[in-house]
Write a structure and sequence with these properties.
Layout: H1 2-22, E1 24-28, E2 34-41, E3 45-48, E4 57-61, E5 67-76, E6 81-86, E7 107-112, E8 120-130, E9 133-137, E10 148-151, E11 156-164, E12 167-172, H2 173-180, H3 187-192
Antiparallel strand pairs: 1-2, 1-4, 2-3, 3-6, 4-5, 5-6, 7-8, 7-10, 8-9, 9-12, 10-11, 11-12
Length: 201
């Protein structure tokens, strides 16, 4: 009975991971390496980190191999967020969760493109959660930046951004929603007040 339950859990988790990988993209901007991003809306809106989308234009590669030119439409280096737009419709967007509902100890998944691997996955648990950052005890690598942090149901609850003292740090999904609504400094003001970024993934 226990083996059957574990098998079912494994199968459900594998299905969740498969869906998340389809909603995770590769982002290349400027002279930096490849980062990650999340399909936030079916109309071609991609969310990633500001330190990934360093240029006003970028290249986005979907999980199915299609490559699009992208234009950066919003940028806030203080919150380490950037919005990209590609000319595409009917994309399979991520389902966004409520980051404030996360509980310490809850299982989470991170998807990204480290070391040129597409859709690599790591798992861990929530270490701490506050309105400014979600912290998880899981491993991130260079290339994970901008990718999704999701709960065990596949709801995206954060955008992975850096590692601090061995812990993964993500921008909460609720912060991303406020960023998209314009409740953050403008791109021009953000440039004027840009600070030296902490170590990134």
């Amino acid at each position: 009975m226990a083996n059957t339950a574990l098998t079912n859990i494994a199968a459900e988790l594998t299905e969740v991971v498969g869906k998340l990988r389809l909603r995770t993209v590769k982002v290349k901007s400027g002279s930096l390496g490849v980062g990650s991003g999340v399909i936030w809306q079916p109309d071609g809106l991609i969310i990633t980190n500001a330190h990934v989308a360093t240029s006003s234009r970028a290249t986005v590669e979907l999980a199915d191999g299609r490559v699009f030119d992208a234009v950066r439409t919003q940028f806030d280096p203080q919150q380490d967020l950037a919005a990209l737009k590609i000319v595409a419709t009917n994309l399979t967007a991520a389902t966004i969760g409520n980051s404030e509902a996360l509980r310490v100890g809850e299982l989470v998944l991170a998807v990204g493109n480290p070391f040129a691997e597409s859709g690599a996955v790591t798992t861990g648990i929530i270490y701490a959660n506050n309105p400014r950052a979600v912290m998880a005890d899981l491993q991130l690598y260079p290339g994970n930046s901008g990718g999704p942090l999701a709960d065990c149901q596949g709801l995206v609850v954060g955008i992975n951004t850096m590692i601090v003292n061995g812990l993964a740090v993500a921008v909460p999904s609720n912060t991303v929603e406020r960023f998209l609504q314009g409740n953050s400094p403008s791109e021009w003001n953000s440039r004027l007040h840009r600070q030296s970024p902490p170590p990134r993934t």
